[in-house]
Amino acid sequence: MSFPKAPIKRFNEAPTCAPPPGSYDIKTSDPSKGPVSFEKSQRFKMQMEDGGVQPNSNNMKPMPSPATTRKLPSLGARPKSLGRKSDKSLIAIKELKKQKELEKEIRILIGIRAQQHKKLQALEEDLAKSESKLSAAVREKNTLLANVASLEKQLLELRKSNDLLKTKMVPVKNGDMKIKLNVVQGTVEEKLAQPEKLIETERPAEEKYDSEKLLECIVELGNVAEQDDDKYKLHIVQLQEIIESKNKDIETLESTLHLKETMLSTQTEELNGKCKILEEQKEKCVHEYEEKEQVMNAEIQCLKEKLSIEEQELQKQQKIFKETSADMHQKLLKFQEEVAKERDILKTELKEAMDELDKLHTKEAKVEKLLKHLEQVNESQNEELSQLETKLQRKSAELDEMAASHKNIIEKLQEEYNQLQFKFGETATEFENYKVCMTEEITCLKQDKAVLQERLTEMNRTVQNATHAMQEEQHAKDQAKEDCMRMLLDSQTKIALKDAEIDKIKESSTMQIANLQGKLEQQSEELNKKLEIERKTVTEKIGADYKKNIKTWRALYEDLYNKVKPFQQQLDAYEAERNALLNEHGATQEELNKISDAYAKLLGHQNQKQKIKHVMKLKEENTQLKQDLLRLRAQVAKEKQAREELQDQINEIQGVKRFDPSKAFQHPSKENVAPKTPFKESNRNKNQAVLH
């Protein structure tokens, strides 16, 4: 019998005390000598040739222990598994890094979104301020229109008073003249009647004397009548001049009023147009912001759908992996059963060998030297095995640390491997105790080894297929993440462009509002000056009438003030409700701050599902708070309108006008006189302070 050569040398080492396996030949023994007969001289012949040269088929090969036969294929397969596990650990580390980068980008995007939300809130505040300014301008316009209406009423009253004076003057003049003429005629008739009587009595003596006196009286009466006519004519001329001057003043006032009305109408049209433009710009901004929000929400939903799809795929792959692991476990169980059967066969063969050993005791002297050599070889191999076991333990520890996800499979394989080692160790002890090497057993073990190698190759193939599938999934995940990153970059660029557009619109709107404010201030100053001039001119003419009516108006005002006192409580109640609403708004702001703090804390957490759920909850709460805020603003606006309406009603009940005529035209300065030098800013401010 001959021992065939081992397929592979374990290590390329120099020969030590004993020749390495496969480096000596053995001749075939005669069949009469027995199955284990050989010559000593040829057995330990050293061959100095290279280890790659194969001896003949009848070359002797030392019987490897069962433990070494089991460990050799495992040693050949372990570096591959090490490389694969290191690749998997590197892939897992890359995935974790990518996940952390994505989380950082999500946080950055959330911060950018918060900044944009703050910018939009600032824009809304600016728009609210501009709206308040426009409303103030509209109120000023309304006050000016009310003042113009009051002036028109005053003009109508002046015209009526002028007409009344004219109508009064004409009959007075005619009545006075008629009365005087009648008196003169009566006196003349009386005096004419007296001379007739005297003539009758004393005609002859006093005719001349009476006639002379009558002539003198008639001349005197004619002179008096002529003087009275001249006086009345002068008075009539003066009154006509006054009426003409008043008519001219009225015409000038009407012309100025028409000009002011045209100016105010043009200004109101311009302001309305600008207000419409600003409202359109506001609507555009709001519409663009809503579109942005919709696009971002759609992108987020797409990303969520992709994540759900990837999670489903991962679950499917996990199921497949579990099924494959179950199949592998079943195969391992079958393999254990086969090993048990082979062990039984080996036991039977060992019994037969024991029977043969009883026959071979006579040949032990020849075999002792060989056994000593084999013991030395076994010791060296055991030392190498111990070193390899220590190395394997170190490498297994490193692999366990690097590949935490594959621990269960590796532990099962290690347990099965240890069981096999234990079984083969028992067989090795049996072989060492009996010190017999049987060629048939070696052939059987080689066949088992080949079967095991085939099975191990199948296992490696399945593991390779699984790793390939995992790599494909990882590649798909990387592609999806790249697509998400591209989408996020596109959205960021779009948002930056929209922010630039919004900044430009803000700058243009602020410039326009500043220009409008300057124009409105100039126009209001001019109108105030003109109105004050007109008020002075009118009040100088009608001051006496107003002074008479002041006492009556004061009495009426006091009565109405006493009547309006209960309304003051309602106004105070409205103010209290407004303050309560403002306090509620402050409480909501505090709640928002708390929610933002909790949100910032949760962003540091590692659980992405909790993050997504919490972000959705925060979005819902944010929308609810926005709706509440809009509702509160609407309530405040309604209360403001109701308060203004109540104030208007109170003013109407009290008879209080927006412009108090009792305070008008009581300035010591002469505004109708043109200044010698143009006004500076200080002079303008002084004059405005004097006017107000």
UniProtKB/TrEMBL annotation:
Pfam families: HMMR_C, HMMR_N. GO terms for cellular component: membrane; spindle. It is found in: Cytoplasm, Cytoskeleton, Spindle. PANTHER family: HYALURONAN MEDIATED MOTILITY RECEPTOR. It comes from the Eukaryota. Residues 113-168, 236-591, 615-656 form a coiled coil. GO terms for molecular function: hyaluronic acid binding. This is Hyaluronan mediated motility receptor. Keywords: Coiled coil, Cytoplasm, Cytoskeleton, Receptor. Transmembrane segments: none annotated. Its main location: cytoplasm. The gene is HMMR. The lineage of its organism: Eukaryota, Metazoa, Chordata, Craniata, Vertebrata. Residues 531-681 form the Hyaluronan-mediated motility receptor C-terminal domain. Residues 1-83, 657-692 are annotated as: Disordered.
